[in-house]
Predict the 3D structure of the following.
Amino acid sequence: MATSKRNTQAAIAIAVLSLPLMYLLKELVRDIFERMAVFYAITVPVSLLAVKLEWKKLLRFDARQAGFGLVLGLVLYALGWVGFALMKALTPEFADQSATFYGWLRQDDSLLMWLLILGVIVGEEIVWRAAVTLPLAEKWGYWGVLAGAAGFSAVHLPWGPPLLVLAAFVFGGCWSLMIYKTRSFWCTLVSHMLWDFLVMWAIPYAG
């Protein structure tokens, strides 16, 4: 019981303090992908130390759950494609904000950038889905899932256009729900990686 309470407190602290940290890094690190990599280089060790989960068990590779994540990644991509198409038809000005994000990708298409993105995705799953969402969902159920998604979305506020903040909340909420229901880090990680690969490079929504 005491561990559960400490985990909840640690998860809340991580979520709350992440926003000012991201605002600070916005002033210190100009490149968006380097900034996010620095953010997770700080928050991942803090999360692993502060939140007392069964980390070895959680991070152990599970092929079945990874395969399930592939399927869910494809489903999320398809749903996102439909949602983006509707957005372009109904609110084209809002949908056009995607040009900002795709512009970042076009500015630097180096191997280093993609390695940074890969590291950031892993960091997001450790921090927001495992360290933040799991304790909050254990305490508050689906409200905890929403709280985890809200925290993930909030750290995009210092630098992301509103469309990106909304996407972080919607898809972050899906990944938070995924880890809450499956208790599988690999399911959410593979789903997230596949979704990012398709949206960023293979079949962009704004293509």
In short: The longest helix spans residues 111-140. Residues 2-202 form one domain.
